[in-house]
Amino acid sequence: MPMKTWGLLALKIAISGALIWYFIGKSDLGAVMESLRQVDAATVVAVLALFLAQMVLVAWRWSALLRLVGVGKGFSFHEIVRTVWSATFFNTTLVSSVGGDAFRLWTIVRAGNPLGKSVNSIFLDRLTALMALMILIAISLPYVMELIADEAAFLSYALLIAAFLAGFAALFHADRLPRRIQHWRLVRGLANLAADTRRLSLHMDNLLPVAALSLLVHILNIFVVYVLARGLEIGISFLDCFFLVPPVILAMTLPISIAGWGVREGAMIVALGLIGVSQESALVLSILFGLGITLAALPGGVIWLFSRNRTVPAMPDGEAES
User: 286 near 265, Cβ under 8 Å?
Assistant: First the structure.
């Protein structure tokens, strides 16, 4: 692994560790342990089942996008589920510098699919997930504003949504860049991605199933938080979770920590604190959420470990194909 990669990994570990240490230091450890003892086996099983169902939905969404961009040769739905499961394992552990998206890309290209279109399938998968999350955040905005009544917070939410829409619009028309740079490899790749983005966005028979699956994936995350809250005897409703958890999910996706650890805890403490949940309860809930997805992902590591080829091949040095 290059020294730069090691340095970035060490920085992420330091950020996660420092944030976790800070929040634990600011909490009543006795109350934290008491909350942990309240969680029963039924809650754990329910959380694991929800995370496993979420992986199947992600695989379903990605398989639809693979078909949309015209790749996926040699991959059955069963194999896509296995790939997503192993990718989740890479996303949630430190066993390798390979991220989940990189693992998915290498796996699909190794099967003989073109690099450019394979990249597009994963980018669109991420884009549709973010799009669904922004929809949920927009829906939750009136509720959140009633809780915080802070103009700065409202502007932050509004700017976030506006920035996403501006970025999406730029991507939508990325193939209209000046002709003098259209021969560049990166620009050709962006043009192909823009075409696939329009193919997804402008045809309801493509967009609606993918959008529905993306929303369901996030709703399962929200439901996990609700189930954990019930197990910890935290008095919040599903609607509270529905409105407050999407910004926490967004914070988890920021690439500044290891699998969202530390950042997720801080966001959960702030979000649930708006409705009177103690810091200790929110901290325990967030830690259990992280442990739950890690446990659910571990079989993906076993799948990878016993696969025929555990190595990650070098990507072909070729142009993105249309």
Answer: yes
Say which amino acid occupies 65: L
- What region, left, alpha or beta, does residue 319 occupy, with left being phi > 0 and alpha being psi -120 to 50 degrees? beta
Report how far apart, in Å, the C-alpha atoms of 122 and of each of 72, 131, 213, 281 are.
12, 14, 15, 36
Give the sign of the dihedral formed by CA 29, CA 32, CA 38, CA 39: negative
Torsion of CA 37, 40, 41, 46, to 10 degrees: -120
**C-alpha angle with apex 168: 252 to 214, nearest 5 degrees?**
50
pLDDT band at 308 (very low <50, low <70, confident <90, very high): low
Q: Choose among 111, 117, 133, 94: nearest CA to 16.
A: 94
Q: What is the pLDDT of residues 34-51, one digit of tens each?
A: 777 778 889 999 999 999
Which pair of tokens denotes residue 106?
A: 């290498």
Using one digit for the tens of pLDDT, what is the confidence trace for 159-170? 888 888 888 888
pTM for this prediction: 0.86
